[in-house]
Amino acid sequence: MPPTATLEDIKAYQQKVEKDKITPDNLPPCPRCSVESMFFKIHAYRERRFLLIIEMLIKAAYCSLVRFKCPGCGKTFTHYPDFAIPQKHYTQPTITGFSAGYVESDNMTYQQAVMVDNSAPGYPQSDSTDAPTLAPTTIHRWITTLGRFTQTCRTALILVLQQNPTLSICRDLARLIIPQRKYKTNYRKKQLFGCRQLVIIEAFFQATFNTSIFTKLATRCAFN
Ligand SMILES: [Zn+2]
Question: How far, in Å, from the CA of 122 to the mean position of ligand 1?
Answer without folding.
Answer: 43
